[in-house]
Design brief:
The chain is mainly alpha-helical. Helices cover 62% and strands 5% of the residues. The longest helix is centred in the first third of the chain and has 42 residues, at 2-43.
């Protein structure tokens, strides 16, 4: 009897596990497609390769993170001035070899997305203006759309759809 009960439980679990595997595959597909579309968008007119995108985004995020007030520090309500990142810190953050980082940084500085400053590399003023700002707004809208699709497919739970701000 115990064997029959065990077989019955196993047979009921298999379809659930199969559905779970299908759902995981769907989530992997949706997220993978989203990632590839973002890489394509970020490459922009300069046709940046994925390593250059990774480096530029790491610098954009890293310089702001380094500038954020720490716990207990006084804030005056103004945005902090971004602090540059060293080439070594960029290589460590991206996991790319230092020589690859050096070559890609030279190209990113040459095309005007990044700039060299005392203390390292920072985003150029053009980094968040014009077409790039519009592209980032479009990417945010795409993130919202993907999130809502994942909610609709039951792949993530939510009280309702996510709306753009």
């Amino acid at each position: 009897m115990a064997e029959l009960l065990g077989l019955a439980c196993q047979s009921r679990l298999k379809p659930a596990q199969h559905r779970l595997a299908d759902r995981n595959e769907l989530a992997r597909f949706l997220l993978g497609r989203h990632f590839l579309e973002e890489i394509h968008m970020l490459s922009g007119p300069q046709q940046l390769d994925p390593a250059m995108i990774l480096i530029a985004e790491t610098v954009a995020i890293g310089t702001m993170e380094r500038s954020m007030p720490r716990a207990g520090q006084r804030q005056d309500g103004q945005l902090p001035r971004p602090r540059p990142m060293s080439r070594r810190a960029i290589a460590l953050a991206t996991g790319l070899p230092r020589e690859t980082v050096r070559r890609r940084l030279a190209r990113l500085v040459e095309i005007g997305l990044l700039k060299e400053e005392q203390g390292g590399i920072a985003c150029a003023e053009s980094f968040m203006r014009g077409d790039r700002a519009e592209m980032l707004a479009e990417m945010l809208a795409r993130h919202v759309s993907l999130t809502n699709q994942l909610i609709a497919e039951g792949l993530i739970e939510s009280d309702g759809p996510v709306r753009e701000a």
